[in-house]
Write a structure and sequence with these properties.
CATH topology of the largest domain: Rossmann fold
Strand order of the largest sheet: 9-8-7-6-10-11-12
Number of domains: 2
Order of helices and strands: HHEEEHEHEHHEHEEHEHEEHEHHHH
Bound molecules: nicotinamide-adenine-dinucleotide
Shape: globular
Largest sheet: 7 strands, mixed
Strand content: 15-25%
Structural class: alpha/beta
CATH architecture of the largest domain: 3-Layer(aba) Sandwich
Oligomer: single chain
CATH superfamily of the largest domain: NAD(P)-binding Rossmann-like Domain
CATH class of the largest domain: Alpha Beta
Number of strands: 12
Distance between the termini: 49 Å
Length: 440
């Protein structure tokens, strides 16, 4: 048996190639343009640490595509950040923004560092230095960062402040989203990704594809990751009547067949810095979480968590990809064969970039919308995404849209939801590129 590939660039290439089989008239020269990043910035910078030593950090900012507007994408601080990962995540942002239909292109950034080993003032100096090195790259109309793993509204406040100090006299608030409320952040941005997961799941379940569960209430839910996205998703699903049977963070997983008490889990995490050890819960590994008996499985942490090694054992009926790239292409095939549905990342976690767009609009207009206004718009947008992809998928199911392999001439099987979502997004970017006219 050949070993499974976990390289993020190869995976994104495989996903693109699979989707492009279903797109007619995609010019081969254009394919190269759509696959390649526009700019890759690799930056090394020195920072003075608290003990007066100096450390050099490696960092990236990648802009994949700007056909629809400025680059948009988060910045993650993680020791495992690589150029390949950042490029693949920037691509994902292009397809996500196109699918959601917001006027942004795709970008992503990252710094190789372990936030758990850094003080607040070291993090501030790292962020300021990174931002100053990106001064010609980021900007309210060129490339707009946001939070991702191990970055938060404080990180965004430092980015905004650094950019504003070095570009005085302008309204620079739209240079970054996910800011604190008092610095032009939007109500509902912090919760937007987790809340978006709820909206897409409720809409998907209402389509009746999974007869045993057609609503959130009563569904048994397992969530990997208890950071910004995972903890909000847990709260939102719980508020809507779901039973949260498993939760995890990097320390491991807690499980209770009768359902976890979320308030207690939040308090335990605050007091102890981890979930494992919470009274009246079973301790499992993060690997075991993937295979627990549940209706909805929400990976909300790192990539490649569902792979050919565990896809056969997954018991959930629906997977909602809150994290980016949690499922490998090999696992996609197994899940489809087993009749397990999956809402892909470019829909499931698109709530974050959607409300980032609303924040950007509010910043340009010097306004701050009420939470109800933001949530209402977000819900409509998430439902629109599910409806769009579901409608296109149905056309494939009934056979109105037949696809034929361009090389073998054989009829292709009905695509899964990831492929249909990508087909929709890639077509939009390809059409917009041609509509604008290839320069010069
Ligand atoms: P976060 O830093 O707030 O939380 C990450 C969580 O993952 C933490 O609970 C951490 O303990 C856990 N974790 C880390 N390594 C793990 C491992 N090996 N196994 C299990 N758990 C592990 O990050 P976040 O903002 O919640 O992002 C989570 C995922 O959602 C990422 O894939 C990110 O790209 C994606 N995402 C985030 C946003 C956003 O708005 N924050 C938007 C779209 C997508």
């Amino acid at each position: 048996m050949t070993e499974e590939i976990f390289d993020p660039l190869i995976i994104s290439e495989q996903q693109f190639d699979k989707a492009s089989l279903y797109i007619n008239h995609l010019q081969s020269g254009l394919v190269d343009f759509l696959k390649q990043p526009k700019h890759v910035h690799v930056i090394h910078f020195p920072v003075e640490m608290d003990d007066c030593s100096v450390r050099t950090f490696r960092s990236y900012r990648v802009i994949h595509n700007r056909v629809f507007g400025p680059g948009k994408g988060g910045i993650r601080y993680h020791p495992d950040v690589t150029e390949e990962e950042v490029i693949s995540l920037a691509k994902l942002m292009t397809w996500k923004c196109a699918l959601v239909n917001i006027p942004f292109g795709g970008a992503k950034g990252g710094i190789c560092c372990n936030t758990k080993e850094l003080s607040n003032s070291e993090l501030r100096r790292i962020t300021r230095r990174f931002t100053s090195d990106l001064l010609d790259v980021i900007g309210p109309h060129t490339d707009i960062p946001a939070p991702d793993m191990y970055t938060n509204e404080q990180t965004m406040a430092w980015i905004y402040d650094t950019y504003d100090v070095l570009n005085p006299g302008k309204n620079n608030r739209p240079v970054v989203t996910g800011k604190p409320l008092d610095l032009g952040g939007s109500f509902g941005r912090t919760e937007a990704t987790g809340r978006g997961c709820l909206y897409v799941t409720e809409r998907f379940l209402s389509k009746g594809l999974i007869p045993e569960i057609n609503e959130i209430a009563g569904a048994r839910v397992a969530i990997q990751g208890f950071g910004n996205v995972g903890s909000v998703a847990a709260e939102e699903f719980s508020k809507h009547g779901a039973k949260i049977v498993a939760l995890s963070d990097s320390s491991g997983c807690i499980y209770s067949e009768s359902g976890l008490n979320l308030d207690e889990a939040i308090q335990f995490k605050q007091e102890h810095g981890c979930l494992v050890g919470m009274p009246d819960t079973l301790t499992l590994t993060n690997e075991a979480l993937m295979e627990v008996d549940c209706d909805v499985l929400i990976p909300a942490a790192v990539s490649n968590q569902i792979h050919t090694g565990n896809a056969h054992n997954i018991k959930a009926k629906l997977i909602v990809e809150a994290a980016n790239n949690p499922t490998t292409p090999g696992a996609d095939i197994i899940l489809k064969q087993r009749g397990i549905y999956l809402i892909p990342d470019i829909i499931a976690n698109a709530g974050g970039v959607t409300v980032s767009y609303y924040e950007w609009v509010q910043n340009h207009a010097n306004e701050q919308w009420d939470l109800d206004v933001v949530n209402d718009k977000l819900k409509k947008k998430m439902h629109y995404c599910i409806d769009t992809v579901f409608k296109r998928w149905q056309v494939f199911v009934v056979g109105d849209e037949k696809c034929v392999d361009k090389v073998s001439g054989e009829t292709l099987e009905c695509p899964d939801f990831r492929t249909v979502a990508l087909v929709t997004a890639i077509e939009r970017v390809a059409n917009a590129t041609l509509m604008r006219g290839i320069w010069p």
